[in-house]
Predict the structure.
Amino acid sequence: MRDRPLLLGHRGARAVTTIPENTLPSFQLALRHGCDGFELDVRLAKCGAVICHDAEFHGVRVSAVNDAKSVNLATLDEVLRTFSKQAFLNIEIKVPGLASEVLLAISENPPERGYAVSSFLPEVLTDLNARDESIPLGFIVDDRTHLSHWRDLAVQYVIPQHSLVTPELIREVHEASRILFTWTVNDARRMRLLADWGVDGIISDQTELLVKTLRPHGDN
């Protein structure tokens, strides 16, 4: 990793509410703000892998969607085709059953600036690793009781909620040759503290604030 954290938009530039989160325009805006990439949420619909955080989208069950365009959902294929050459991608898998679609999409448009396929669900990560050990995986955790499970998983990225992050945890993760990203950090003071502690990536809704705080001179 570089000597400063990667700056990643959460579901794109989520703080800009005039542009819907988890959409191509929101992802593009995060990059325009100066982020290195973004986090996105992937669910399984009847038509394949679509980008959506919740199980329902405007009252429609995502799992029942036959045509992503008809309900204004982006697909994972679209995101990879559009951004594989220009952004680091943190591809969060929300549900089981997506391994084949995700691996195929990545093989067709491999992200050239780096990526992680991440999940809260250990079974999702185990399935992906069993299918392809070369895929960089990340374990997302928001509960201290589950935090230590990263050691039992074949993951390269440990992605705790920011309140769980301590200098000791960062040291343990780095000593195990893993990478630590944290989310969702929307306060400038916390951004600076985590960067000083040595986290490898910071995920934020506040993409403009994130870049202004940690890259005030626009350096890359």
Q: What stands out?
A: The radius of gyration is 16 Å.
